[in-house]
Prior knowledge:
The complex is a heterodimer of chains A (415) and B (717). The two termini of chain A are 13 Å apart. Helices cover 51% and strands 11% of the residues of chain A. Chain A has helices spanning 2-16, 23-40, 48-66, 71-95, 102-112, 118-132, 137-143, 146-156, 163-197, 200-203, 217-228, 245-255, 268-272, 297-306, 328-331, 392-399; strands spanning 209-213, 234-238, 259-263, 277-281, 284-285, 291-294, 311-314, 362-364, 369-372, 379-382, 385-387. Chain A has 415 residues and is an alpha/beta fold. Chain B has 717 residues and is an alpha/beta fold. Mean pLDDT of chain B is 66; it is low at 1-189, 212-252 and 643-711. The longest helix of chain B is centred in the middle third of the chain and has 32 residues, at 412-443. In chain B, the strands form four sheets. Chain B has a seven-stranded mixed sheet, with helices on both faces. Helix content of chain B is 45%, strand content 11%. In chain B, α1 (2-16) crosses α3, α7 (95-103) packs across α9 and α19 (367-385) runs antiparallel to α20. The radius of gyration of chain B is 28 Å and the shape is globular. Chains A and B meet through α12, β3, α13, α14 and β8 of A and α23, β3, α24, α25 and β9 of B.
Amino acid sequence: MPDTQALVNDFLNKLKKRKIEGSQATARQTAELLRSVISQQRVPYTNQAGALIDAVKAIGEQLIAANPVELAVGNIVRRVLHIIREEDLSLTTAAIGGLNLSAVSDDENDDDRDGDSTLSAAAVAAAARSTLRPPSLQTLLEDTPVSAAVPQTSSSGGDSEGKTADKSSRSRKLKHDVIEAVNELIQDIVTCHEQIAEQAVEHIHQNEVILTLGSSRTVLEFLFAAKEKKRSFRVFVAEGAPRYQGHLLAKELVARGLQTTLITDSAVFAMISRVNMVIVGAHAVMANGGVIAPVGMNLVALAAQKHAVPFVVLAGSHKLCPLYPHNPEVLLNELRSPSELLDFGEFSDCMDFGSGSGSPLLHVVNPAFDYVPPKLVSLFITDAGGHNPSYMYRLIADYYSADDLVVQRRATAGN
Amino acid sequence: MDSRRSSRAVIDPKVRQVGFFTSAPLPPDRTQSDPPDPIRSPPLADASSPGNSLSPVMIPPPRHPSDSLLRLPHSPSDAFPPPSPTTTTTSLGDFSDDVTAASSPPPAAARVRGRGSSVKQQGAASSFPGGGFEVPPSVKAPSSVPASGLTTVSVVKLPPGISENAGGSVSVEVQSDRALNSKPLKEKTSKAERRAIQEAQRAAKAAAKAEGIKTPAVTALANAKSAKSTKPSPQRNDSAVVVAASEKKGGDRSVEKDRKKDVPHPRMQYDDKSRVQKLKKRSVVKPTEARNRVELFRHLPQYEHGTQLPVLQSKFFQLDTLHPAVYKVGLQYLSGDICGGNARCIAMLQAFQEAIRDYSTPPAKTLSRDLTAKISSYVSFLIDCRPLSVSMGNAIRFLKSQIAKIPISLSESEAKATLHSDIERFINEKIILADRVIVKHAVTKIRDGDVLLTYGSSSAVEMILQHAHELGKQFRVVIVDSRPKHEGKLLLRRLVRKGLSCTYTHINAISYIMHEVTRVFLGASSVLSNGTVYSRVGTACVAMVAYGFHIPVLVCCEAYKFHERVQLDSICSNELGDPDSISKVPGREDINHLDGWDKSENLQLLNLIYDATPSDYVSLIITDYGMIPPTSVPVIVREYGRGQLWIYEECDPLASPGRCSDAVFFVDGLIFYPSQHLVLSFWFPDRPPSGLNNDLLERSDNFVTVAENGNFTNFEL
Lengths: 415, 717
């Protein structure tokens, strides 16, 4: 699999050099890379799932290390791992359907897949089911007696195929299913804008005044979807220094015929009292409902809270990160080049490097991201609908397997 | 009557006196009031009488009578309970009744119900001129009535001799007046005083009108009143009344004018077409209006930037009415060479100085009128160049009042010299010295190891940082900057040159950088009467985030920038800058998304210059009168509005710290540092300022408890 390695290295380089901008692009490319990795991966006769998981984990770890701040990479790796587990489980349950003693087969299965507990496999199955269906009271009720419920439901759909005869077809089927599922995931990532934008009319009314900061494709599509439905509203765009992506957004909005006012970031507080709703995109959404967003967002969120303006975050499901943040302002942040604020050499005339302790008198701080705590967020709109910040952990549990939260190879695993 | 007047004379000047106090040179009115003779200087007394006569109204019922009785052991022996009829006849809203009731008790029986329910007789009151808490005896009677403050006012503001005639009508007026004057209840005494002045004046007018139309009840009342007033000092009575009457009219009218001046004029609204047309006719600059104006800001002028300058330059030789110095300053405003409240104000004043120096009164005109008109034309030219800042508005107001004050007898050269020195004094005292005082105050708030954050470029903050650095304090500065002006870069350059350790960032990163900050120092363009800080746009964001991080926000602002306007948002009043500077990012050629789009109908570029920081975010305002909470701004505005100039040179507490003690009072929301410029003579007139050594123990809405040499005293607010 040298070609895979080349692909991976190429992608790693891109990530390290920050060539890929935007979590959506990153997520899509990660998923595509992992798909090709899976398709290239030779699976052993037994324990195919384990082999796939190991392979994905190995690459996933490199990818995450390449750009730890781009949480979408980790998210997608975890999603793919989750998909593998899920597909394996559904195949297993289908295969063991004919057997009478489900508990025994579960144990067998356990041994196959390096010591995963029965309970976690069942939990994964439950989680898998709930991803397919919107969360409902029924799902929640079903979830509680997990271990008891799983074998029963699976046994009903089981076929009386011979286990041994099935083995080879099963291995091919697993890979095929996984690749199918990853394709679906890529599709989801690509179309998440549309799914989010579909909900726009439910949130934007006539003559609304909306404020946004920086540029986000999701926000653009969202606003434009509302515009297409003949809603007329005005948009204030804060330019989002030092990247000034707001200019880009303003241009796009104007091109699509929306009434747009471009303001400086410093005028956010002044203008927010006349704003009905703040709609912003996010870089990542953490499990606690906190948002990693372009720098300046916390300012907007605080101002919105002060004036009781709803603060709505649009995020595709690939931005949902299953991790709980610790000191995210620093640990999940990135300092960009000072040249965005001060020209190189601009202050060379008044810097005296020759004297003093040698430490420069001038520091320039240019962080890339801001952390918005969950209490400042009024609503998340994802492709799975609108959610409270407090609900995000549950939504996230649907997408990820608890075993994958830490993507780290065991020390023994070789590469 | 006389006693009443004299007691007023005792108190009224003190109410106004908020200047600096030292024990040695007592202000003239104070010394005047010192002698215990109750029958002194009736004209003076009368002129000021309505002012303080209101004080009992504002005094809430005593909370700790025992305390205050202890405090004033000399008075209770003189105390008289109010006659019973007073209490029985009173009913809320029945004004004539109240009047009768109030006037019926003999003056000697007047009961004090004021501060701490110190009960005093008039003799005591006058012999202790400093005892500012007790009210004039004649006034005390009504206050003893358990009626609402409203009724008491109606009694109190009756001018002696005249206004009884129209007692009823007057009181009605009072009511309506009060409704009109619904202002924050903060500055109780000063407001009360002013209101009383106004009401008294109205009363006088009404009385003049209603002469001869006397209802029997009112007549009776008048009789009672006159009887009462004659008792204490019959020998002076007649003349006093006459003098009082005439004095009152004149004095009150001027006071009334002052009062009206105090109410800020409505600002020019640029969405009012007719007025804009009128303005255009007058204006010299003739700017072209911007095309894509933001709908929300129609009421603000927004002109095509850069068009005025060439026009003005070409007009230089046609504008013969304009003094070249003023013209130059106008151009500098227009091009942005001079910006910042202080710099603009000083430049303007110096230009006016030059203009006044070269001024000569045209024949058949008086200097004061012609010069005022001239200044007004200059001002309107400057407004055309750039809207006035609050600081400039205040300076212009000062200059005009100084011009108006020039006596006609003064020769032209003398008048010009006076004005010249007045302007000089204004610049020195209000700006330069004020900044120095602010620096002295603020430096005490900087400790070693601090990380100080500042936003934009404020001259006061810069001086503070430099001074602290010169003092050898070890601290770091975080300079937060914003588009489009990037004023912080200039500040950064100056500070780095001086060797300060600086961190530079932009406003979006404020939440990131705020973690390490220990103090936030902000400048202000103006501080408004409701505590709102009107400053460079973005200040509110910085203050908000600091507030969110529980970091103290210190606003440094000279008191001459305070303004009695109130404002809740940044939209009703603001200034719009050049919109083109929004779409272009200098030094970043890659940001060119909006090239060619600014002509689009749908795109508006908004370049706000100022924003309003709510007072909740401000921990402290450092001003030349000390460090005050934002709630005390109206008090400063009120007292400052009197046009008093404090002479720093005479008793600069910082120059001679030994002369004043370090007592601190919190009264009416004000932190009083007697060692600085505000002394509480107004609240504690009987305390020699040198002896102040009190600690605040407790403060509530109505009183403060102060420990004084081991005694606890409640001072009601």
